[in-house]
Amino acid sequence: MFFAGLQDSGNLKYVRGDMFEDVPVADAVLLKSILHDWNDDECSRILKRCKEAISNQHKRGTIKKVIIVDMVVMDSEKVNEENSKTFETQLFFHMLMMVGLTGRERGEEEWAKLFCAAGFSDYKIIPISGLRFLIEVYP
């Protein structure tokens, strides 16, 4: 396993497990390039486990959230000459996910449906680097 030799720090703990079965209680859960590997039903199961993990944390004064680093495919109606190559690259990744795995790349509307289906109340999407976005999801 990739994380087997990593050391915990004061505020970060590495835990081995099955995210479909259980996610340990935490203030925040980080999913980097995870959800695009899975179909909507599987993503919903993972997100529900994450919501349970952060909802079971009873520390006062902490903002509980799921942090997702993944792609957000732009709306085809917003494609122009300036961003057409980015959109084309996003579509290539989308096809790669559909051919190699059960997942896919998602647009904002598709992400919102997943968050709602998993019982979350709000989210925020922030572009961070190239094709990657930071998505904060709140219970």
UniProtKB/TrEMBL annotation:
<protein>
    <recommendedName>
        <fullName>O-methyltransferase C-terminal domain-containing protein</fullName>
    </recommendedName>
</protein>
<keyword id="KW-0489">Methyltransferase</keyword>
<dbReference type="InterPro" id="IPR029063">
    <property type="entry name" value="SAM-dependent_MTases_sf"/>
</dbReference>
<dbReference type="InterPro" id="IPR001077">
    <property type="entry name" value="COMT_C"/>
</dbReference>
<dbReference type="Pfam" id="PF00891">
    <property type="entry name" value="Methyltransf_2"/>
</dbReference>
<dbReference type="InterPro" id="IPR016461">
    <property type="entry name" value="COMT-like"/>
</dbReference>
<keyword id="KW-0949">S-adenosyl-L-methionine</keyword>
<feature type="domain" description="O-methyltransferase C-terminal">
    <location>
        <begin position="7"/>
        <end position="121"/>
    </location>
</feature>
<keyword id="KW-0808">Transferase</keyword>
